[in-house]
Specification:
two-stranded antiparallel sheet; 393 residues; 2 domains; 20 helices; single chain; alpha/beta
Length: 393
């Protein structure tokens, strides 16, 4: 079985503006244009757009705005998760702002603070602590959860609209040689993205062989039917905390269950394990007292089959701890051979550090040492029309 696992870097490699900061930059532009009535000529030079967003920012601000002036202004004025990152953008702070890490920090601070004590100073300093909040901490605690949940749901629905109406309509003009070379061998797809880029550009896999583990953007559904997962990892450190249900609705594992994104990948791994057991039965049934050359050949063939039971390819995934439950289950499967593609040296080093947190130092050393885990630098994208030249030869 050959499984391709893709993260946001896969979409970015296809020149799609799918970063959270791209969404913020779009909202930022729309507010300045439609609410503050600035000209685009004034706005565009002051924002460090990604190349993919810069190509379309004028069209979706002037001709096809996906939010009205009131909607855009409300997002930046009332939604804490959007407002904070919007302000960071204005202040020229870190360009890569991770909503999930922002959310995780707030929730962990709230979670570890006894309800009879005051909120941590850093939380009180943020916009989440407003005059709307009651002074009693117990009520404040509950109100913070309510506000955060409402803001997160609003963020998800707004981001879904951005994905469907802007990202999905952007033409893809390049292909990835690494993926093109693997395309015919891929049996299964695990996507952490909300887009369906792989099946648009490469091999058409049926739905049964695709697991959109964090859901998909789809405006045909009602808001209640939205299945996009956007949250934090399970940060419990001990058994007692494991059964503490405070803020569970913000945790990805809970959202995947509640939003019914499924467990296909687990079934695929079970299938691999079952095939391994069948191979062991075949090996044990062989008569090893008489081992003629033909049987030796069969024996070696069976061993080769077992060694090739599961090949996993990660492309465009940071391997961050927020997805550790899934990543570790894949990589630590006893039959897995894992290839991890990286963009550059900086990404490579970060992936190593993330994997240490996800599977542990000893497992990483063992797997890179015995060749069941390797890192490969990804090739640069090539024009999509090159595909026609390759296939025509």
């Amino acid at each position: 079985m050959n499984i391709l696992v893709i993260g946001n870097g896969f979409d970015l490699a296809h020149n799609l503006p799918t970063r959270y900061i791209d969404f913020i930059d779009y909202i930022h532009t729309l507010v300045r244009y439609s609410v503050w009535h600035q000209n685009l000529d004034e706005i565009i030079p002051t924002i460090e757009y990604s190349n993919s967003l810069r190509e379309i920012i004028q069209e979706y601000t002037l001709n096809k705005p996906i939010f009205s002036a009131d909607e855009a202004n409300k997002l930046v004025e009332t939604n804490y998760l959007i407002k904070t990152n919007y302000k960071n953008n204005n202040n020229n702070l870190d360009r890569w702002v991770d909503f999930e890490k922002t959310l995780s920090y707030i929730i962990q601070e709230l979670n570890k603070t006894p309800r009879h004590r005051s909120l941590p100073e850093k939380i009180l300093e943020t916009e989440i602590s407003t005059s709307e909040f009651p002074k009693n901490f117990y009520d404040l605690f509950l109100k913070a959860e309510e506000f955060l949940k409402s803001d997160l749901n609003q963020l998800i629905l707004s981001f879904e609209k951005y994905i469907c109406e802007i990202v999905d309509n952007k033409e893809i003009n390049c292909i990835l040689p690494d993926i093109k070379n693997l395309e015919q061998d891929i049996d299964k797809l695990i996507s952490f993205n909300y887009t369906d880029t792989y099946r648009k550009v490469y091999k058409i896999l049926d739905d049964e062989n695709c697991h959109f583990i964090h859901g998909k953007a789809d405006l045909k559904r009602t808001p209640e039917e939205n299945n996009m997962v956007m949250g934090i990892d399970d940060f419990c450190d001990n058994q007692e905390d494991e059964y503490d249900l405070k803020f569970i609705e913000f945790k990805k594992f809970y959202q995947r269950i509640a939003k019914k994104t499924g467990n296909k990948y687990k079934k695929w791994l079970e299938e691999v394990n079952t095939n391994a057991e069948d191979i062991d039965i075949r090996i044990n049934s062989m008569d090893k007292t008489h081992f003629p050359s033909i049987q030796q050949h069969i024996y070696k063939s069976i061993l080769a089959e077992k060694s090739n039971l599961l090949n996993i390819y990660f492309f465009g995934h940071s391997l961050d701890v927020t997805d550790r439950d899934i990543i570790s289950e894949l990589i630590l499967n006893p039959f897995a051979k894992t290839t991890i593609y990286y963009l550059n040296q900086q990404v490579y080093e970060q992936q190593i550090m993330n994997l240490i947190k996800v599977i542990g130092k000893d497992n990483l050393i063992e797997k890179t040492g015995n060749g069941t885990l390797e890192f490969v630098k990804q090739a640069d994208p090539i024009p999509r029309d090159t595909e026609l030249e390759i296939t025509s030869e």
